[in-house]
Amino acid sequence: MKDIFEKRKQDILSKNDKSHIGNVDKKIASLCEKINKSKNCYTTSSCSGRVVIMIDQQKKAENLFLLVYHDLINFIDLKKDLSKILSENKKNIIKFKQEPCILHVACKNFEDAEEILNCARISGWKKSGIISSGKRFIVEMNSTEKLEFPIIDKNILLVDDYFLKLIIKKANFNLKKSWEKIEKLEKLI
Hints:
The protein is an alpha+beta fold.
């Protein structure tokens, strides 16, 4: 009879991806595959980092994300996408949010969780920790590169082109740093 951890691992890894893109994004897929081949660990969620343009709201709800980019962004496309949002959203505050990589790993025992956590910290995933224990241990790994601010209010773009170009440069720099940390972690595991 299979142990509970192995059964849970098979159940989780056999489920359809519930993310809005419907699969693991390419920049973190290799790391996830490597972890999932381990006997005592498996991934439960992951993101290599992204930029989202979303309705600013306290509670999670459907349709908050207006745009999601999982790759580097450029001025022309972002400006065009923001113009479209301006024509469709008359009353909402819209925010620009660049998020770092994040990864959740279930581990069979504390020692495996501690080992993954140490690898994450060495690789620069500074906001990481063991967030659950019991039948399995969950390690949450977060990088720290992020930006978040209102970009549209009452159908008015709050930033000029100079600032937009500056935030694109910073967001792309942050995404590249996140992707480097994914590669470092994969080498250490």
